[in-house]
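Notes from the 1:1 (GR / supervisor)

We went over the backlog. Supervisor wanted to see one worked example end to end before approving the batch request, so GR pasted a single chain during the call. The sequence is below; no edits were made to it. Supervisor asked that the structure be written out right there so they could see what the output format looks like.
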Amino acid sequence: MKKIVRRITERLFGRRYYAVIIGEAGSDRYDLASQIHPSRESANEHRWRIEQTRAYLYVTTITFRTHHPITGKP
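Structure output shown during the call:
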Protein backbone atom coordinates (compact mmCIF):
# COMPACT_ATOMS: atom_id res chain seq x y z
CA MET A 1 0.00 0.00 0.00
CA LYS A 2 2.83 2.43 0.83
CA LYS A 3 4.42 1.75 -2.55
CA ILE A 4 1.19 2.64 -4.35
CA VAL A 5 0.79 5.87 -2.38
CA ARG A 6 4.44 6.78 -3.06
CA ARG A 7 4.03 6.19 -6.80
CA ILE A 8 0.86 8.31 -6.91
CA THR A 9 2.62 11.08 -4.97
CA GLU A 10 5.61 10.95 -7.33
CA ARG A 11 3.29 11.13 -10.31
CA LEU A 12 1.37 14.14 -8.97
CA PHE A 13 4.15 16.13 -7.27
CA GLY A 14 7.37 14.73 -8.72
CA ARG A 15 10.22 12.83 -7.10
CA ARG A 16 11.92 14.11 -3.97
CA TYR A 17 15.59 14.99 -4.06
CA TYR A 18 17.98 16.42 -1.47
CA ALA A 19 20.67 19.09 -1.78
CA VAL A 20 23.25 20.23 0.76
CA ILE A 21 23.94 23.92 1.35
CA ILE A 22 27.52 24.69 2.40
CA GLY A 23 29.40 27.79 3.44
CA GLU A 24 33.03 28.69 2.96
CA ALA A 25 34.93 28.80 6.23
CA GLY A 26 35.86 32.35 7.22
CA SER A 27 33.49 33.88 4.67
CA ASP A 28 29.84 34.88 4.37
CA ARG A 29 29.48 33.03 1.06
CA TYR A 30 27.01 30.13 0.78
CA ASP A 31 26.64 27.69 -2.12
CA LEU A 32 24.75 24.63 -3.19
CA ALA A 33 27.06 21.61 -2.99
CA SER A 34 27.87 20.02 -6.33
CA GLN A 35 25.70 16.92 -5.87
CA ILE A 36 21.96 16.27 -5.88
CA HIS A 37 21.04 13.23 -3.78
CA PRO A 38 18.17 10.82 -4.40
CA SER A 39 17.92 9.83 -0.71
CA ARG A 40 18.35 11.43 2.69
CA GLU A 41 20.96 8.80 3.59
CA SER A 42 23.12 9.83 0.66
CA ALA A 43 22.78 13.50 1.64
CA ASN A 44 23.75 12.67 5.24
CA GLU A 45 26.87 10.84 4.02
CA HIS A 46 27.84 13.90 2.00
CA ARG A 47 27.19 16.08 5.05
CA TRP A 48 29.56 13.90 7.09
CA ARG A 49 32.29 14.26 4.44
CA ILE A 50 31.85 18.05 4.43
CA GLU A 51 32.09 18.21 8.22
CA GLN A 52 35.48 16.47 8.01
CA THR A 53 36.99 19.37 6.02
CA ARG A 54 38.14 22.76 7.22
CA ALA A 55 37.40 24.60 3.99
CA TYR A 56 33.60 24.25 4.11
CA LEU A 57 30.91 24.36 6.76
CA TYR A 58 27.64 22.45 6.59
CA VAL A 59 24.65 24.81 6.69
CA THR A 60 21.53 22.75 5.94
CA THR A 61 19.94 20.11 3.73
CA ILE A 62 17.02 21.16 1.56
CA THR A 63 14.47 19.02 -0.24
CA PHE A 64 12.73 19.69 -3.51
CA ARG A 65 10.55 17.83 -5.97
CA THR A 66 10.75 17.63 -9.73
CA HIS A 67 9.10 15.63 -12.49
CA HIS A 68 12.38 15.46 -14.42
CA PRO A 69 14.68 12.59 -13.41
CA ILE A 70 17.97 13.97 -12.14
CA THR A 71 19.77 10.69 -11.54
CA GLY A 72 19.01 9.26 -14.96
CA LYS A 73 16.45 6.80 -13.60
CA PRO A 74 12.97 6.97 -15.17
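Supervisor's comment: The radius of gyration is 15 Å.
Batch request approved.
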